[in-house]
Amino acid sequence: MGRNKLDSAIDARTRKCLKQGRLRVENGAGLLARFGNTVFSIGAVALMVTVVLGVYRLPDTIPVDTIIQAGSAIPDSEVPAFRQAALWHEVATREAGNIQLNSQVRHFANMFNADLQLARIIYDISVDEEVDPELVFRVIRTESSFVTDCVGLVGEIGLMQVRYGTALTVDRGATHKKLYDPAYNIRIGIRHLKDHLHYFRGDIRMALLAYNRGRGRVNELLAMGMDPANGYARRVLDTRL
Questions:
Q1: The whole model's pTM is what?
Q2: Backbone angles phi, psi at 130, to 5 degrees
Q3: How far is the C-alpha of 235 from the C-alpha of 141, rounded, in Å?
Q4: Which of the following CATH numbers is that of domain 112-238: 3.30.457.10, 1.10.340.30, 2.140.10.30, 1.10.530.10?
Q5: In this predicted model, what pLDDT tens digit does every residue of 173-222 receive, in sequence order?
């Protein structure tokens, strides 16, 4: 075979091999492309299904408190349960407060050997008037020993031995009859004591002396350089129970 014919045969075989290789590559690329498109399509469909299911199942999978914090509406199916849980929490909180309150009232009732119902009245009014309940219990014990209809030598009335004239300075509608009502008597007595506490800037000893002797007399003795103490404050504060 001549040189030219040999070269021509080689060139023909080479072109044939290259052509077949290119076809295989093209066919492989086509298959890969088609396979990739199929995988992409399946993935896209799966993602869409996940998103759709996630959106429609959101209320059933996320806790109610998370939804509330996010500012979203609570699902209708969750509202009754949520309201019931809130109601139970409110009741439990109120009961816990009542247990604590009852415990404190019983403590004072036992401490001062007072009737439980009366102790509750004294405690509630003291807290309402923002005065230490124990101080009020001590004053009442010293003044009347918890006898509700007690009457003093100069007309002092009730638990806190309030004079009618003194009651009028606190309440213009005060009457002798009202002063025999335990709750009213305690309220008037506490407010009278509070006035002395404010005047003497929280000095309990001086406020008690003024409650017992009158503020005018206490100031008069102080102006004379004399100690207004007469043992009353000591009896109230240092009474051994």
A1: 0.60
A2: 60, 45
A3: 10
A4: 1.10.530.10
A5: 999 999 999 999 999 999 999 999 999 999 999 999 999 999 999 999 99
